[in-house]
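Whether sequence alone determines local backbone shape is best considered at the level of individual chains. In the encoding step, the backbone of a single protein was reduced to a row of integers, each denoting a local shape. For completeness, the protein is quoted in full, as a sequence line and a line of structure tokens.
***
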Amino acid sequence: MTARFAGAAVIVLAWQVLGGLGLLGPGIAPPTEIVAGVAADGLSFYTAHVPATLGSALLGYLWGNLAAIGCAALVIVLPWLEKLVLQVGIASACIPLVAIAPILAAVFNGPTACVVMAGVSVFFTTLVSTVNGLRLSDRTSEDLVRAYGGGRLAVLRKVQLLSALPSVLTALKIAVPAAVLGTIIGEFMGQERGLGAALMVAQQGADVVRTWGITLVSSLMTVLAFLAVAAVERVATPWTEASR
């Protein structure tokens, strides 16, 4: 832990020196100026944009992950659907977000496009992790449920979902930054509110300090959300603590 903090401190110090001396050009603002810029913009600026981004990211995160978990369960119950479902998932992961953002902005109105972008961003990772987790269930427990007359749904509900929980929660952690990134990219497409919209305006105005400040706030928001999901993971799967 000490080594991690020491490494981070060295990076920040080097960043401060290089940014302060302008050795890497005017586009690299030193951390002290970035923090001062965030403080100067104040709560009034960020409270106008953070809730919009957070709300869209949360909705997309929920719907995208629910869809992924539902599709993974469908693959296990109906194996003949696996190829189709995985092809859809691969397609969602392979298409660049910046390529589909204008299309979604034209199809959906307002923040809905951002929600869809967030959902698409998280779908594939959660789908693959959940399918793999469901397949790692204990075969003896599955046979026991079948011996008592349980079908595929009973095995899924009583054995496989519990076995897949660590994999699902790990995927949900990874999905946090993906959802925020998808939302911000969606906000580039003509939105009036949101950190992505504010970032676009700052870039167009060549406001380097504000651009870095918005990036810093976005990162802090993502880290806090990631830690929240990690806390849920520790509570929900205490039996995996030793392996972690």
